[in-house]
Amino acid sequence: MKVLILAKKKTQKTNAIRLLEQKKIPFTVSEYAFSDEHMGAKSTAKELGVEESSIFKTLVIVGNKTGPLVAVVPGDKELDLKKIAKVSGNKKVEMLPQRELEPLTGYIRGGCSPVGMKKQLPTFFAKEAENLELFHCSAGQRGLQLNINPSDLVKLLRASFVDITVE
Q: In what order do the strands lie in the sheet with 27-31?
């Protein structure tokens, strides 16, 4: 009689996952199906069976004085460019052109994590995350989300919780 042993599918380790493991920060990873047409927070939340407000997107912007910055905002909100400019010490900010994302961060659109970028950029978390026990953000690859305490990330990244979303 032949016995078939099924191996558990192993999650690919991204830079974000490696760094969190190295720093011994507790987290879990959720995998979900994605497509190029459905990469937003709404479809991610639906795939994971969670509220869109618990999915946080990582946005890379460029300030006229500071250069590249990272904003981590709830999936159901929009980044307020004037607010992020003010808290980051810039007069003006704009979204980083998509073609520059991977060379700068090491991540592609739809898989950009605030953790494990090629170079740690000044990072700002929306105040909506401050009192959450857990939230979801990209693990550094499309189809992978970190489930993690946002305060642990803020401490690791030397970031801060600020008011940066559109009211």
A: 27-31, 144-148, 135-138
CA distance 63 to 82: 11
Segment 16-75, tens digit of pLDDT? 999 999 999 999 999 888 777 666 787 888 888 888 889 999 999 999 999 999 999 999
CA-to-CA distance for 167 and 150, rounded, in angstroms?
21
The vertex-50 CA angle with 46 and 55, nearest 5°, equals: 90
Token pair belonging to 118: 């090629």
What pLDDT does residue 42 have?
79
Residue closest to 138 by CA, chosen among 70, 61, 88: 70
**pLDDT-based confidence at residue 10 (cuts at 50, 70, 90):** low
Compute the half-sphere exposure of residue 39: CA atoms within 13 Å on the CB side of its CA: 13
pLDDT band at 81 (very low <50, low <70, confident <90, very high): very high
Query: Of 40, 90, 88, which is closest to residue 65 (Cα–Cα)?
Result: 90
**Which H/E stretch holds residue 82?**
helix 81-88
Q: Token digits for 34?
A: 């994605």
Kindly report the pTM of this predicted structure. 0.89
**Which among 71, 73, 85 is positioned nearest to 121, based on CA atoms?**
71
* Count of residues making up the chain: 167
